[in-house]
Specification:
about 20% helix, about 425 residues, 12 helices, four-stranded mixed β-sheet, flat, alpha+beta, 16 strands, about 20% strand, single chain, six-stranded mixed β-sheet
Length: about 425
Protein backbone atom coordinates (compact mmCIF):
# COMPACT_ATOMS: atom_id res chain seq x y z
CA UNK A 1 0.00 0.00 0.00
CA UNK A 2 2.96 2.37 0.59
CA UNK A 3 3.67 2.55 -3.15
CA UNK A 4 0.15 3.62 -4.10
CA UNK A 5 0.71 7.35 -3.53
CA UNK A 6 1.54 7.89 -7.17
CA UNK A 7 -1.70 6.10 -8.13
CA UNK A 8 -4.34 7.30 -5.65
CA UNK A 9 -5.04 10.57 -3.89
CA UNK A 10 -3.49 10.58 -0.41
CA UNK A 11 -4.34 12.42 2.80
CA UNK A 12 -1.27 12.79 5.03
CA UNK A 13 -1.77 13.52 8.74
CA UNK A 14 0.95 14.32 11.29
CA UNK A 15 0.54 12.68 14.71
CA UNK A 16 2.33 14.04 17.81
CA UNK A 17 1.11 12.56 21.07
CA UNK A 18 -2.70 12.94 20.94
CA UNK A 19 -2.81 15.85 18.48
CA UNK A 20 -3.35 15.57 14.72
CA UNK A 21 -2.25 18.14 12.14
CA UNK A 22 -2.83 18.26 8.38
CA UNK A 23 0.32 17.70 6.29
CA UNK A 24 -1.46 17.19 2.96
CA UNK A 25 -5.17 17.45 2.28
CA UNK A 26 -7.35 16.31 -0.62
CA UNK A 27 -11.07 16.14 -1.38
CA UNK A 28 -13.02 12.91 -1.15
CA UNK A 29 -15.93 12.08 -3.46
CA UNK A 30 -18.86 9.75 -2.98
CA UNK A 31 -18.84 6.56 -4.98
CA UNK A 32 -15.12 5.72 -4.66
CA UNK A 33 -14.01 2.41 -3.14
CA UNK A 34 -10.46 1.87 -1.77
CA UNK A 35 -8.96 4.64 -3.90
CA UNK A 36 -8.52 7.40 -1.29
CA UNK A 37 -5.49 6.65 0.88
CA UNK A 38 -4.90 7.97 4.40
CA UNK A 39 -1.37 8.00 5.79
CA UNK A 40 -0.39 8.85 9.38
CA UNK A 41 3.11 10.19 10.11
CA UNK A 42 3.93 9.49 13.78
CA UNK A 43 6.19 12.17 15.27
CA UNK A 44 6.36 11.03 18.89
CA UNK A 45 7.61 7.76 20.38
CA UNK A 46 4.42 7.06 22.36
CA UNK A 47 2.90 5.56 19.15
CA UNK A 48 5.78 3.13 18.56
CA UNK A 49 5.20 -0.61 18.79
CA UNK A 50 1.45 -0.53 19.56
CA UNK A 51 -1.61 -1.67 17.62
CA UNK A 52 -3.26 1.27 15.86
CA UNK A 53 -6.67 1.77 14.26
CA UNK A 54 -7.90 4.71 12.23
CA UNK A 55 -11.39 6.05 12.94
CA UNK A 56 -13.63 7.44 10.17
CA UNK A 57 -17.09 9.03 10.44
CA UNK A 58 -19.28 11.19 8.23
CA UNK A 59 -20.03 14.67 9.56
CA UNK A 60 -23.77 13.91 9.37
CA UNK A 61 -23.41 10.96 11.77
CA UNK A 62 -21.05 12.96 13.97
CA UNK A 63 -23.48 15.84 14.58
CA UNK A 64 -26.25 13.32 15.32
CA UNK A 65 -23.98 11.49 17.80
CA UNK A 66 -24.34 8.21 15.93
CA UNK A 67 -21.40 6.16 17.21
CA UNK A 68 -22.59 3.26 15.08
CA UNK A 69 -21.61 5.39 12.11
CA UNK A 70 -17.91 5.16 13.06
CA UNK A 71 -15.67 2.83 11.02
CA UNK A 72 -12.47 1.40 12.53
CA UNK A 73 -9.75 0.40 10.06
CA UNK A 74 -6.41 -1.27 10.98
CA UNK A 75 -3.34 0.79 10.08
CA UNK A 76 -0.43 -1.07 8.45
CA UNK A 77 3.25 -0.76 9.36
CA UNK A 78 3.59 2.25 7.07
CA UNK A 79 0.76 3.99 8.95
CA UNK A 80 -1.63 3.68 5.98
CA UNK A 81 -5.19 2.58 5.30
CA UNK A 82 -7.98 3.39 2.83
CA UNK A 83 -10.79 5.80 3.66
CA UNK A 84 -13.97 3.64 3.80
CA UNK A 85 -16.62 4.45 1.21
CA UNK A 86 -19.31 4.50 3.90
CA UNK A 87 -18.16 7.93 5.19
CA UNK A 88 -17.95 9.46 1.71
CA UNK A 89 -21.65 10.23 1.46
CA UNK A 90 -21.57 13.18 -0.92
CA UNK A 91 -21.56 16.92 -0.39
CA UNK A 92 -20.26 17.67 3.12
CA UNK A 93 -17.38 16.59 5.32
CA UNK A 94 -15.97 13.46 6.94
CA UNK A 95 -13.78 13.06 10.02
CA UNK A 96 -10.53 11.13 10.60
CA UNK A 97 -8.91 10.17 13.91
CA UNK A 98 -6.67 7.43 15.30
CA UNK A 99 -6.14 5.53 18.56
CA UNK A 100 -3.69 2.92 19.78
CA UNK A 101 -3.72 0.18 22.42
CA UNK A 102 -0.85 -0.94 24.63
CA UNK A 103 -0.55 -4.54 25.77
CA UNK A 104 -1.15 -3.52 29.39
CA UNK A 105 -4.53 -1.97 28.49
CA UNK A 106 -3.43 1.64 28.25
CA UNK A 107 -4.86 3.57 25.31
CA UNK A 108 -3.86 6.72 23.43
CA UNK A 109 -6.53 8.56 21.43
CA UNK A 110 -6.22 11.57 19.14
CA UNK A 111 -8.56 14.38 18.18
CA UNK A 112 -10.44 14.19 14.84
CA UNK A 113 -9.82 16.31 11.74
CA UNK A 114 -12.48 17.24 9.17
CA UNK A 115 -11.94 16.87 5.42
CA UNK A 116 -14.20 17.97 2.55
CA UNK A 117 -16.26 15.53 0.51
CA UNK A 118 -18.00 16.32 -2.78
CA UNK A 119 -20.79 14.53 -4.58
CA UNK A 120 -19.27 11.97 -6.95
CA UNK A 121 -20.54 11.19 -10.44
CA UNK A 122 -20.99 7.45 -9.86
CA UNK A 123 -24.57 6.05 -9.95
CA UNK A 124 -25.78 2.67 -8.80
CA UNK A 125 -25.74 -0.04 -11.46
CA UNK A 126 -23.54 1.82 -13.95
CA UNK A 127 -20.29 0.62 -15.42
CA UNK A 128 -17.69 2.62 -17.33
CA UNK A 129 -18.47 3.01 -21.02
CA UNK A 130 -19.76 5.39 -23.65
CA UNK A 131 -22.61 7.64 -22.52
CA UNK A 132 -25.64 8.01 -24.79
CA UNK A 133 -29.04 9.69 -24.35
CA UNK A 134 -30.45 6.24 -23.53
CA UNK A 135 -27.80 5.90 -20.82
CA UNK A 136 -28.91 9.16 -19.27
CA UNK A 137 -32.48 7.96 -19.29
CA UNK A 138 -31.45 4.74 -17.54
CA UNK A 139 -29.41 6.71 -14.99
CA UNK A 140 -32.41 8.93 -14.27
CA UNK A 141 -34.58 5.87 -13.92
CA UNK A 142 -32.13 4.35 -11.45
CA UNK A 143 -32.00 7.60 -9.49
CA UNK A 144 -35.80 7.63 -9.33
CA UNK A 145 -35.66 4.09 -7.96
CA UNK A 146 -33.45 5.09 -5.01
CA UNK A 147 -34.55 3.65 -1.73
CA UNK A 148 -35.85 6.96 -0.36
CA UNK A 149 -38.50 6.92 -3.09
CA UNK A 150 -39.99 3.65 -1.80
CA UNK A 151 -43.24 3.85 0.09
CA UNK A 152 -44.56 1.32 2.51
CA UNK A 153 -47.44 -0.88 1.46
CA UNK A 154 -48.15 -3.90 -0.71
CA UNK A 155 -45.84 -6.10 1.30
CA UNK A 156 -43.06 -3.48 1.72
CA UNK A 157 -42.24 -2.09 5.15
CA UNK A 158 -39.71 0.65 6.04
CA UNK A 159 -38.87 1.08 9.72
CA UNK A 160 -37.53 4.27 11.40
CA UNK A 161 -33.95 3.24 10.59
CA UNK A 162 -34.84 2.97 6.87
CA UNK A 163 -34.52 -0.83 6.94
CA UNK A 164 -36.60 -2.43 4.15
CA UNK A 165 -38.53 -5.64 4.69
CA UNK A 166 -40.88 -7.40 2.28
CA UNK A 167 -43.59 -10.02 2.72
CA UNK A 168 -44.68 -11.95 -0.33
CA UNK A 169 -47.88 -13.85 -0.93
CA UNK A 170 -48.38 -17.06 -2.84
CA UNK A 171 -45.51 -18.16 -5.04
CA UNK A 172 -43.86 -14.76 -5.36
CA UNK A 173 -40.11 -15.22 -5.82
CA UNK A 174 -38.01 -12.35 -4.43
CA UNK A 175 -34.68 -14.04 -5.11
CA UNK A 176 -33.78 -11.59 -7.85
CA UNK A 177 -34.75 -8.60 -5.71
CA UNK A 178 -32.75 -9.89 -2.77
CA UNK A 179 -29.78 -10.44 -5.10
CA UNK A 180 -29.96 -6.87 -6.39
CA UNK A 181 -30.30 -5.49 -2.87
CA UNK A 182 -27.27 -7.50 -1.81
CA UNK A 183 -25.25 -6.39 -4.82
CA UNK A 184 -26.06 -2.75 -4.14
CA UNK A 185 -25.86 -2.85 -0.35
CA UNK A 186 -22.95 -0.44 -0.34
CA UNK A 187 -24.73 2.02 -2.63
CA UNK A 188 -27.91 1.80 -0.54
CA UNK A 189 -25.93 2.63 2.61
CA UNK A 190 -24.32 5.56 0.82
CA UNK A 191 -27.70 6.91 -0.30
CA UNK A 192 -29.10 6.55 3.21
CA UNK A 193 -26.25 8.67 4.53
CA UNK A 194 -26.97 11.44 2.04
CA UNK A 195 -30.53 12.13 3.12
CA UNK A 196 -32.41 12.92 6.31
CA UNK A 197 -36.13 12.43 6.74
CA UNK A 198 -37.91 15.73 6.41
CA UNK A 199 -40.15 14.94 9.37
CA UNK A 200 -37.04 14.71 11.60
CA UNK A 201 -36.01 18.26 10.69
CA UNK A 202 -37.21 21.44 12.35
CA UNK A 203 -39.55 23.60 10.29
CA UNK A 204 -36.91 26.31 9.91
CA UNK A 205 -34.68 23.81 8.04
CA UNK A 206 -37.10 23.84 5.11
CA UNK A 207 -38.42 27.43 5.30
CA UNK A 208 -35.33 29.31 6.37
CA UNK A 209 -37.56 31.83 8.15
CA UNK A 210 -36.52 33.45 11.41
CA UNK A 211 -40.12 33.32 12.55
CA UNK A 212 -40.02 29.48 12.40
CA UNK A 213 -37.21 29.30 14.98
CA UNK A 214 -38.08 27.93 18.41
CA UNK A 215 -36.66 29.19 21.70
CA UNK A 216 -35.87 32.53 20.10
CA UNK A 217 -34.23 35.06 22.45
CA UNK A 218 -36.56 37.78 23.69
CA UNK A 219 -35.82 41.04 21.95
CA UNK A 220 -35.14 43.81 24.52
CA UNK A 221 -37.04 47.08 24.39
CA UNK A 222 -34.41 49.70 23.45
CA UNK A 223 -36.79 52.65 23.11
CA UNK A 224 -35.19 54.54 26.04
CA UNK A 225 -31.61 53.60 25.18
CA UNK A 226 -29.19 55.83 23.27
CA UNK A 227 -27.13 54.68 20.32
CA UNK A 228 -23.37 54.98 20.31
CA UNK A 229 -23.54 57.62 17.61
CA UNK A 230 -26.02 59.69 19.65
CA UNK A 231 -23.69 59.55 22.69
CA UNK A 232 -20.66 60.53 20.60
CA UNK A 233 -22.55 63.47 19.09
CA UNK A 234 -23.69 64.69 22.52
CA UNK A 235 -20.15 64.54 23.90
CA UNK A 236 -18.79 66.41 20.87
CA UNK A 237 -21.38 69.15 21.37
CA UNK A 238 -20.29 69.88 24.96
CA UNK A 239 -18.44 73.21 25.34
CA UNK A 240 -15.16 72.07 26.87
CA UNK A 241 -13.67 74.56 29.41
CA UNK A 242 -10.17 75.98 28.99
CA UNK A 243 -7.95 74.13 31.48
CA UNK A 244 -4.82 76.23 30.96
CA UNK A 245 -3.24 76.92 34.33
CA UNK A 246 -4.90 73.94 36.01
CA UNK A 247 -2.85 71.15 37.47
CA UNK A 248 -3.24 67.57 36.34
CA UNK A 249 -3.52 64.71 38.79
CA UNK A 250 -0.11 63.41 37.69
CA UNK A 251 1.49 66.86 38.28
CA UNK A 252 0.07 67.05 41.81
CA UNK A 253 1.19 63.52 42.67
CA UNK A 254 4.74 64.28 41.52
CA UNK A 255 4.86 67.30 43.87
CA UNK A 256 4.68 65.00 46.89
CA UNK A 257 1.92 66.90 48.70
CA UNK A 258 0.27 65.27 51.70
CA UNK A 259 -2.71 63.14 50.72
CA UNK A 260 -3.98 62.19 54.19
CA UNK A 261 -4.12 63.65 57.73
CA UNK A 262 -0.73 63.86 59.44
CA UNK A 263 -0.13 64.01 63.19
CA UNK A 264 0.88 67.55 64.42
CA UNK A 265 1.81 66.37 67.91
CA UNK A 266 5.44 67.63 67.71
CA UNK A 267 4.60 70.87 65.85
CA UNK A 268 3.78 74.31 67.29
CA UNK A 269 1.82 77.34 66.10
CA UNK A 270 3.16 80.66 64.84
CA UNK A 271 1.52 82.48 67.74
CA UNK A 272 3.34 80.29 70.24
CA UNK A 273 6.66 81.01 68.58
CA UNK A 274 5.98 84.77 68.47
CA UNK A 275 4.98 84.87 72.13
CA UNK A 276 8.02 82.87 73.17
CA UNK A 277 10.40 85.10 71.26
CA UNK A 278 8.72 88.19 72.75
CA UNK A 279 9.31 86.86 76.24
CA UNK A 280 13.03 86.50 75.47
CA UNK A 281 13.20 90.16 74.52
CA UNK A 282 12.42 91.38 78.03
CA UNK A 283 15.29 93.39 79.49
CA UNK A 284 15.44 91.40 82.73
CA UNK A 285 15.99 88.23 80.71
CA UNK A 286 18.90 89.64 78.61
CA UNK A 287 22.33 88.67 80.02
CA UNK A 288 25.07 91.28 80.67
CA UNK A 289 27.04 91.67 77.43
CA UNK A 290 28.97 94.81 78.37
CA UNK A 291 32.24 92.96 78.06
CA UNK A 292 31.63 91.89 74.48
CA UNK A 293 32.71 93.85 71.42
CA UNK A 294 30.02 95.78 69.69
CA UNK A 295 31.74 96.33 66.37
CA UNK A 296 34.51 94.70 64.36
CA UNK A 297 37.97 96.37 64.80
CA UNK A 298 39.71 97.70 61.70
CA UNK A 299 42.57 95.18 62.00
CA UNK A 300 40.15 92.28 61.45
CA UNK A 301 39.13 91.08 57.99
CA UNK A 302 36.36 88.86 56.73
CA UNK A 303 36.86 85.49 54.97
CA UNK A 304 36.03 87.02 51.59
CA UNK A 305 38.52 89.87 52.16
CA UNK A 306 41.19 87.37 53.17
CA UNK A 307 40.56 85.25 50.06
CA UNK A 308 40.84 88.39 47.90
CA UNK A 309 44.36 88.99 49.26
CA UNK A 310 45.53 85.81 47.48
CA UNK A 311 47.54 84.51 50.40
CA UNK A 312 48.67 80.91 50.05
CA UNK A 313 47.07 78.33 52.23
CA UNK A 314 48.45 75.04 53.42
CA UNK A 315 46.53 73.23 50.68
CA UNK A 316 47.60 75.58 47.90
CA UNK A 317 51.24 75.16 48.96
CA UNK A 318 50.89 71.37 48.95
CA UNK A 319 49.34 71.53 45.46
CA UNK A 320 52.14 73.67 43.95
CA UNK A 321 55.27 72.77 45.90
CA UNK A 322 57.06 69.66 47.13
CA UNK A 323 59.00 69.04 50.28
CA UNK A 324 62.74 68.59 50.34
CA UNK A 325 62.27 64.86 50.87
CA UNK A 326 59.96 64.70 47.84
CA UNK A 327 62.39 66.79 45.76
CA UNK A 328 65.21 64.34 46.47
CA UNK A 329 63.11 61.45 45.11
CA UNK A 330 60.56 62.93 42.65
CA UNK A 331 59.78 59.53 41.13
CA UNK A 332 59.11 58.01 44.56
CA UNK A 333 61.39 55.03 43.88
CA UNK A 334 62.39 52.86 46.85
CA UNK A 335 64.73 49.88 47.23
CA UNK A 336 67.11 50.97 44.41
CA UNK A 337 70.81 49.94 44.33
CA UNK A 338 73.84 51.57 42.75
CA UNK A 339 74.15 50.98 39.02
CA UNK A 340 70.42 50.34 38.37
CA UNK A 341 68.35 52.36 35.89
CA UNK A 342 64.78 53.73 36.05
CA UNK A 343 61.96 51.88 34.21
CA UNK A 344 58.35 53.01 33.65
CA UNK A 345 56.15 50.57 35.56
CA UNK A 346 52.59 51.80 34.83
CA UNK A 347 50.88 54.48 32.69
CA UNK A 348 47.43 56.07 32.62
CA UNK A 349 44.82 55.95 29.81
CA UNK A 350 46.60 58.82 27.97
CA UNK A 351 50.01 57.10 28.07
CA UNK A 352 51.44 59.29 30.85
CA UNK A 353 53.74 57.48 33.35
CA UNK A 354 52.23 57.16 36.80
CA UNK A 355 54.69 54.81 38.50
CA UNK A 356 58.39 54.00 38.12
CA UNK A 357 60.76 51.30 39.46
CA UNK A 358 64.50 50.60 39.61
CA UNK A 359 65.83 47.68 37.51
CA UNK A 360 69.25 46.21 36.65
CA UNK A 361 70.85 47.21 33.32
CA UNK A 362 70.08 44.45 30.77
CA UNK A 363 73.18 42.57 29.62
CA UNK A 364 74.34 43.52 26.08
CA UNK A 365 72.17 46.63 25.98
CA UNK A 366 75.20 48.97 25.83
CA UNK A 367 73.74 51.16 28.57
CA UNK A 368 76.68 50.44 30.90
CA UNK A 369 79.31 51.85 28.42
CA UNK A 370 81.87 50.17 26.11
CA UNK A 371 82.42 46.62 27.31
CA UNK A 372 85.09 45.47 24.74
CA UNK A 373 87.13 46.69 21.71
CA UNK A 374 87.90 44.25 18.90
CA UNK A 375 87.28 41.48 21.41
CA UNK A 376 89.61 42.99 24.03
CA UNK A 377 88.30 43.81 27.51
CA UNK A 378 89.70 45.66 30.45
CA UNK A 379 92.29 48.46 29.93
CA UNK A 380 92.79 48.37 26.14
CA UNK A 381 95.52 50.20 24.15
CA UNK A 382 94.53 50.84 20.55
CA UNK A 383 97.16 51.32 17.86
CA UNK A 384 96.71 53.24 14.60
CA UNK A 385 96.84 50.02 12.57
CA UNK A 386 93.78 48.79 14.45
CA UNK A 387 91.79 51.84 13.44
CA UNK A 388 93.22 52.70 9.94
CA UNK A 389 94.07 50.59 6.93
CA UNK A 390 97.46 52.00 5.71
CA UNK A 391 98.60 52.26 2.04
CA UNK A 392 101.92 53.06 0.33
CA UNK A 393 100.26 54.53 -2.75
CA UNK A 394 100.51 58.22 -3.62
CA UNK A 395 97.94 60.53 -2.12
CA UNK A 396 97.26 58.02 0.71
CA UNK A 397 98.34 57.63 4.35
CA UNK A 398 100.82 55.16 5.75
CA UNK A 399 101.88 54.32 9.30
CA UNK A 400 105.46 54.98 10.36
CA UNK A 401 107.50 52.63 12.54
CA UNK A 402 106.80 54.79 15.60
CA UNK A 403 103.07 54.37 15.01
CA UNK A 404 102.50 57.88 13.70
CA UNK A 405 100.70 58.66 10.47
CA UNK A 406 102.38 60.21 7.41
CA UNK A 407 101.11 61.29 3.97
CA UNK A 408 102.72 59.64 0.94
CA UNK A 409 103.81 61.55 -2.18
CA UNK A 410 101.16 63.77 -3.76
CA UNK A 411 100.37 63.92 -7.47
CA UNK A 412 98.75 67.02 -8.95
CA UNK A 413 96.32 65.13 -11.08
CA UNK A 414 94.59 63.85 -7.95
CA UNK A 415 94.49 67.09 -6.02
CA UNK A 416 91.03 68.62 -6.13
CA UNK A 417 90.74 72.40 -6.01
CA UNK A 418 87.50 74.30 -5.60
CA UNK A 419 86.86 77.35 -7.76
CA UNK A 420 88.57 80.57 -6.48
CA UNK A 421 90.82 78.51 -4.10
CA UNK A 422 94.60 78.74 -4.28
CA UNK A 423 97.22 76.05 -3.63
CA UNK A 424 100.68 77.17 -2.48
CA UNK A 425 103.40 74.55 -2.67
CA UNK A 426 106.69 75.00 -0.89
CA UNK A 427 109.68 73.14 -2.17
CA UNK A 428 111.67 73.74 0.93
CA UNK A 429 115.37 74.23 0.15
CA UNK A 430 115.17 72.34 -3.09
Amino acid sequence: MSNTETTFATIIIGVKHNKLSVVRSTIGTSGIIDTLLCRFEFRSTDWAGIQKQAVFQSMNDYVQHKDEGKYFIDVNEQGECYVPAEVLTGQGEFLIGIFGMYEDGRRISSNMLAFKCDQGCYCIGTTPGGTTPDDYAKIKELIDQKQDKLTAGKGIEIDEDNVISCTCEGGYDDTELAKRIDENAHAIATIQGEYVKSESLAKVATTGSYNDLTDKPEEPDLIDYATKRYVDDQISAIDKPNLDGYATEEWVENKGYLTEHQSLENYTTKDYVSDTLASYAKIENIPDVSGFITEIPDEYVTDSELDAKGYMTEQSVADKYVTKAEAKNPLNITGATTGQIVKIKTIDADGNPTEWEAVDIPSGSGLSGVESVNGKTGAVTITASELIKPSSEANKVSIAEDGTLEVNALTFDKILQSEDDEIILSGGGA
